[in-house]
UniProtKB/TrEMBL annotation:
Keywords: FAD, Flavoprotein, Monooxygenase, Oxidoreductase
Cofactor: FAD
Stated name of the protein: FAD-dependent monooxygenase
InterPro entries linked: FAD-bd, FAD-dep_Monooxygenase_BioMet, FAD/NAD-bd_sf
GO molecular function, a single term: FAD binding
Domain of life from the UniProt record: Bacteria
Biological source species: Kitasatospora sp. CMC57
Length: 408
């Protein structure tokens, strides 16, 4: 049994800890914060996420907290006219073997944390921020922010987009600031007029902005997320933002989405960031997973999904012998790089070419989307939503992802 250090105790870190501990290893999760918790609001989970959650043994718990969505609606945010709708019941569920759902982040995180606390091979430490590492002849020493040192047979960097492990391993500097600001609010569904409620993820697209809303918390709350391509150049996280500042940022919003935006309370804002795909994920017995390996913009709704896939794949490959970790980590990276790179690049493309065009480009986009049948829409997402990691079923990622790795 090896001792494996996990830098970071978010969704990706805990999921990977569970998958690795199943192979008989001891896992020490080193979390920088003073408590194990999850920030943020609603997230979307495709069938690929549920396949991974089932493999981790917590699929039922997450399903009990989820809202199962009937469809994804794409609306013209200025005219209020419907553009396209992808149904997510019936043929979709039959095709992909699981539902599409929306949850609060804590609804995924809480079952992961509960399972980790019950797992005899997992030790959870708070206030243990990993700031770097040193490879030794037979393992790795993690350097903590408080000056402490923790020795292990391997180190998994699951410490997010600002990963210190990635900073040393890849050395690609600060995250890339997208120039997009997102404003988030969660409100009680009881405050939403009945005619504005729907069991869908609805996206209103306008020139250099879009607005998304969907139910979470078993349908008791409505998650609001409005994004503006405002050229922001400084990364900020969860900054309290006044209601009028949010409303003023979307003057072109049509009547119906405007009514929903006006319901928002206690807004917070983030400036979205990501990183370029990279070739290098490993350094001997050190490996990156989740946002430390492939941070992506929100527009493909796959950040948490891909982190969960990472966990299952790494758990299946890690083996039992510490002497084989370096080889097995390299195999893991080789298996995951193309798929995650394609997803990162897709997220960027969606943000720039699908969600934010105006004028003639928006008209052409609307015509293109309106012409697609449900079957055609399902085929377009099959490579993402149809993956069943742990069962050997992963559709080949588009060529763009495999060709776009940045050499580091």
């Amino acid at each position: 049994m090896a001792k494996i250090l996990m830098a970071g105790g978010g969704i990706g870190g805990l999921a990977t800890a569970l998958a690795v501990a199943r192979q008989g290893h001891r896992v020490v999760v080193l979390e920088s914060r003073d408590t194990f918790t999850e920030l943020g609001a609603g997230i979307q989970l495709g069938p690929n996420a549920f396949h991974a959650l089932d493999h981790l043994g917590i699929g039922a718990e997450v399903r009990a907290r989820a809202v199962y969505i009937d469809g994804l609606r794409f609306m013209d945010g200025t005219t209020g006219e419907p553009v396209a709708r992808m149904p997510l019941t019936g043929a979709y569920r039959e095709r992909f073997g699981n539902p599409y759902a929306v949850v609060h982040r804590i609804d995924v995180y809480a079952p992961l944390l509960a399972a980790a606390r019950l797992a005899p091979g997992i030790e959870l430490r708070t206030g243990a921020a990993v700031r770097g590492y040193r490879r030794t002849g037979d393992g790795v020493i993690a350097a903590l922010a408080d000056g402490g040192r923790v020795r292990g047979d391997a180190l998994i960097g699951a410490d997010g987009i600002n990963s210190a492990v990635r900073g040393q391993l890849v050395g690609d500097g600060a995250p890339l600031v997208s120039g997009h600001t997102i404003y988030r609010s969660v409100i009680p569904m009881a405050k939403v007029p009945a005619e504005l409620r729907s069991n869908t993820v609805t996206l209103w697209a306008g020139p250099k902005w879009h607005f998304v809303h969907y139910p979470i918390g078993g349908g008791e709350y409505l998650n609001l997320a409005a994004t503006r391509d405002d050229g922001a150049r400084r990364a900020v996280t969860a900054v309290p933002t006044g209601r009028h500042a949010v409303l003023d940022a979307f003057p072109e919003l049509g009547e119906t989405p405007r009514r929903l935006l006006e319901l928002g309370e206690e807004w917070r804002s983030w400036v979205l960031c990501d990183r370029d795909p990279v070739e290098r994920w490993t350094d001997g017995r050190v490996v990156l997973v989740g946002d430390a390996a492939h941070p992506m913009l929100q527009y493909a709704a796959q950040g948490a999904c891909q982190a969960l896939e990472d966990a299952v794949v790494l758990g299946g490959l890690i083996g039992t012998e510490a002497e084989e970790f370096e080889q097995r980590f390299e195999k893991f990276a080789a298996e995951r790089r193309g798929r995650t790179a394609a997803t990162q690049l897709l997220a960027r493309e969606l943000g720039s070419r699908l969600y934010h065009p105006g004028g003639e480009r928006a008209t052409a986009r609307n015509a293109m989307l309106a012409a697609l049948s449900p079957e055609e829409l399902h085929r377009k997402v099959e490579w993402l939503h149809g993956a069943r990691v742990g069962e050997g079923r992963v559709t080949e990622a588009p060529l763009i992802g495999r060709q776009a790795l940045v050499a580091h």
